[in-house]
Amino acid sequence: MQNKIEQLRKDKGLTQADLAKACNVTRQTVNAIENNKYDPTLQLAFSLSKILNTEVDKLFTPD
Question: Which SS3 state, helix, strand or coil, does residue 3 take?
């Protein structure tokens, strides 16, 4: 699964650390998600979409 999290995060002027803190996860978790090494839980996906002001289905695309 591919994602648009890095681009959306940068568009909002957030660092990985900023996004991680807002989602209550580590920066390493955000990095792993952005690099497609980790698929977030549904709860985390909803948190990411809320912070990035988008819908969950717009964050991720199938390979």
Answer: strand
